[in-house]
Design brief:
A hairpin with a 5-residue loop joins strand 4 and strand 5 (69-71). The chain has one domain. With 101 residues, the protein is of the alpha+beta class. It is flat, with a radius of gyration of 16 Å. The chain has a 3-stranded antiparallel beta sheet. A two-stranded antiparallel sheet has the order 2-3. Helix content is 18%, strand content 18%.
């Protein structure tokens, strides 16, 4: 939820093969970890971001431990973001981009 999150989310390794794509939503509601100006966390509010991740990507970046998770912080994940990510699903389903005929 927080704009300044570590861009991580919990995910059990045994769940990775349960889906073709995982959509992660970062709501970016404001700052939580850092001190915002005048302690107003809403100062950090941004548009939500959606990332469409494949099982292969998740396996590569999965971290085992007592809290199994995937951390996206520091990774170049622009190709999975918003419309680009949703286009990955459309391509996998062989759905052409809408156009006027």
């Amino acid at each position: 939820m927080a704009t300044d999150s570590d861009r991580g989310f919990p995910l059990k390794a045994r769940s990775i093969d349960a889906f073709d794509f995982l959509i992660v939503a970062f709501l970016n509601v404001g700052y939580y970890l850092q001190k915002a100006k005048n302690n107003a966390s809403i100062d950090g509010a941004r548009d939500p971001e959606f990332f469409v991740l494949t099982p292969e990507f998740l396996r590569e970046h999965h971290q085992a431990g007592s809290w199994e998770k995937v951390r996206l912080g520091g990774l170049d994940i622009d190709t999975y973001k918003n419309e680009k990510g949703f286009e990955l699903i459309a391509q996998a389903l062989d759905v052409p981009y809408p156009s006027k005929t």
